[in-house]
Amino acid sequence: MPHIPKSILDASPDIPGLTLRFCGKDSNQYNIPGYPGLLLSVRSNRCSVFKRVLPILIPRKGEVLNALSHFFTKSVIGPYCETDFIAAGEDIDSYLPIVAQGNPDLQRRATVIKRLQRPRFQHIGRFHLTGRGWREYSVSGQIDDHVLIQRFTNGSRLPFPVYTPTAKAMDESDEPISAECMSDFYGSSLERETLQLGHLVKEYVYKRGLILADYKIEFSSDNANNKYVLVDEKFTTDTCRYWDKLMWENVQHTGQLPSTMGNQDLYDWGVAMGIDILDPANSHHQTLVDNMKVPDDVVEATTQSLLAAFYRLTDTQLENYQSGVLKIKAHPSD
């Protein structure tokens, strides 16, 4: 289990009638009585930067991510791959004990999913050179085992999509593993599906004036049907780097990067506080982060950025999607 500040754990109440199965950096999973083959996945308002869970909750983050994952599952990638999705919104009540039913907050943040093995790997696709890929390329001229012979800058569009999987540790950290090694164990199907799904989303968001720079997805094996299933978040702002296309074009010649939709304010604050250079394995560094105060304006800006990202990606206000598609009562603050 990843480290989560005690103040944040204490702010996450239990769900009546359900037992916690797993607590992750950004979400919890619960066993559902009477449905041994299903789980309730609940997106929290927790947030993390540079592999650290911060001592703050971002209002409405969980419901944005939950609705985004539902949107991409149903409207973009669903026809092309099998997922773990069972029910969302008002429909989750059909699977919950009576004491947990009729809870609009839970309906906004939760999805009923198939109970599958926890993924061992993250599958990362890159259409642009940035993040870890840029850091590795700037030192060695390659990303993992992909050699790039052209000269690129941070944010450059790659001449071809690059697949850079990672292995997941118990604390939800990840370590690079070569695409060749993945192929030796699992064949080429997961790399192919990762890049194909990424291409679908890239083409979709490009029509909306956006760029999918890179992304990560996860697959789990469904032994009963002898196939791999797409699980967890599907192309949300927490798992993808989305840029505004015009902004990217305007800053490329300057060597700068456009803002990343949804998370840029928190990321910038984390860099300013030096979190990016702290050692995740150092307990003293962890204590430093646990005692940091995230400014109110950064929290508010992050909420607004998430809501704006949802609209840019779906052409729908979050509240309208929740009431019209997920059949959930209006948010109390609306």
Give a quick set of tags describing it:
16 strands, Phosphorylase Kinase, domain 1, single chain, seven-stranded antiparallel beta sheet, 2 domains, five-stranded antiparallel beta sheet, 334 residues, D-amino Acid Aminotransferase, Chain A, domain 1, alpha+beta
Description:
The protein is of the alpha+beta class. The strands form four sheets. Strands 8, 11, 12, 13, 14, 15 and 16 form a seven-stranded antiparallel β-sheet that branches. A five-stranded antiparallel β-sheet has the order 1-2-3-7-6. A two-stranded antiparallel ribbon has the order 4-5. It has helices at 6-10, 61-77, 104-109, 131-140, 179-186, 189-206, 245-251, 264-272, 283-290, 296-314, 318-324, and strands spanning 19-23, 27-31, 38-43, 46-49, 52-57, 85-88, 110-114, 121-128, 142-143, 146-147, 157-163, 166-168, 174-176, 210-222, 227-231, 240-244. The protein has two domains: 1-115, Phosphorylase Kinase, domain 1; 121-266, 2-Layer Sandwich (D-amino Acid Aminotransferase, Chain A, domain 1), CATH 3.30.470. The longest helix is centred in the last third of the chain and has 19 residues, at 296-314.
Compile the SSE list and pairings.
Elements: H1 6-10, E1 19-23, E2 27-31, E3 38-43, E4 46-49, E5 52-57, H2 61-77, E6 85-88, H3 104-109, E7 110-114, E8 121-128, H4 131-140, E9 142-143, E10 146-147, E11 157-163, E12 166-168, E13 174-176, H5 179-186, H6 189-206, E14 210-222, E15 227-231, E16 240-244, H7 245-251, H8 264-272, H9 283-290, H10 296-314, H11 318-324
Antiparallel strand pairs: 1-2, 2-3, 3-7, 4-5, 6-7, 8-11, 8-12, 8-14, 9-10, 12-13, 14-15, 14-16
Helix pairs in contact: 2-10, 8-10
